[in-house]
């Protein structure tokens, strides 16, 4: 994963209280999937 993806993923994982979603050895594809999933989860939580 790129440095930008790593920073974004770490930030989103902390915001969603799911630090286990961040891992240093992810591929760019897997990082994008996790970023998308975390964004969706945060948006859902914010909608309440």
Write a concise synopsis of the structure shown:
This protein is mainly alpha-helical and 48 residues long. Helix content is 67%, strand content 0%.
Describe this structure in words.
It is a single chain. 67% of the residues lie in helices and 0% in strands. The chain has 48 residues and is an all-alpha fold. The chain has one domain (3-46). The protein is elongated. The chain starts with a helix and ends with a helix. The model has no long low-confidence stretch (mean pLDDT 97). This is DUF3072 domain-containing protein.
Report the portion of residues in β strands: under 5%
Distance between the termini: 32 Å
Largest sheet: none
Helicity range: 55-70%
Q: Provide the low-confidence segments as ranges.
A: none
Order of secondary-structure elements: HH
Broad shape: elongated
Write down the Rg.
10 Å
Kindly name the structural category: mainly alpha
Count of DSSP E strands? 0
Domain tally? 1
Secondary structure tally, helices = 2
What average pLDDT do the residues reach?
97
Any descriptors?
DUF3072; 48 residues; elongated; 67% helix; mainly alpha; 0% strand
List the helices and strands and how they pair.
Blueprint: H1 3-15, H2 28-46
Pfam families: DUF3072
InterPro entries: DUF3072
Protein name: DUF3072 domain-containing protein
């Amino acid at each position: 994963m790129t440095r930008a993806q790593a920073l974004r993923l770490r930030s989103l994982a902390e915001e969603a209280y799911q630090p286990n979603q961040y891992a240093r050895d992810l591929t760019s594809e897997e990082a994008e999937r996790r970023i998308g999933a975390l964004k969706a989860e945060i948006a859902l939580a914010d909608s309440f």
